[in-house]
Amino acid sequence: MSLLLPHAISTYFAISNGGDIASVEHCFTAGAIVKDEGKTHQGHAAIAAWQRAAQTAFDYSVEPLDMFTEGDRVTVTSKVVGNFPGSPVTLSHAFGLVDGKINTLEIV
């Protein structure tokens, strides 16, 4: 099943699946905040470093399965498969959008 994701979120998942990390500037606001695995990453440089570290540490793919939209908040359930402990896992990505870009992202 293919989901019709907002452009910024689609770009984020492309990055997560081995895409160009420099694209974070195109999908995240300058002061965006990402919370993942108990850590907070703020701004383009920190978010790019977080993505780079994940891509370096593991081989994985992320498949969006379902999407729920409420105003500027979009929650995407995804299946993540890779060479990490506990694979595969189902994760919830809660995106907050501002002017079409990701301003907040919390992954649980």
Estimate what percentage of residues fall within beta strands. over 45%
Number of strands: 6
Q: Total number of helical segments?
A: 3
The strands making up the biggest β-sheet line up spatially as: 2-1-6-5-4-3
Secondary structure: helix percent: 25-40%
User: Secondary-structure element sequence?
Assistant: HHEEHEEEE
Which secondary-structure class do the elements indicate? alpha+beta
Q: Name the average pLDDT.
A: 94
Low-confidence stretches: none
* C-alpha geometry: globular
Distance from N terminus to C terminus (CA atoms, Å) equals 22 Å
In angstroms, what is the radius of gyration?
Answer: 13 Å
Main sheet characteristics: 6 strands, mixed
Offer a quick outline of the entry.
Helices cover 26% and strands 47% of the residues.
Write up what this structure looks like.
- The protein has 3 helices and 6 strands.
- The longest helix is centred in the middle third of the chain and has 14 residues, at 44-57.
- It is an alpha+beta fold.
- The protein is 26% helix and 47% strand.
- It has a 6-stranded mixed β-sheet with strand order 2-1-6-5-4-3.
Draw up the topology in text.
Elements: H1 7-16, H2 24-27, E1 28-36, E2 39-42, H3 44-57, E3 60-70, E4 73-82, E5 89-98, E6 101-107
Parallel strand pairs: 1-6
Antiparallel strand pairs: 1-2, 3-4, 4-5, 5-6
Protein name: Nuclear transport factor 2 family protein
Organism: Phytobacter palmae
Pfam family, one: SnoaL_2
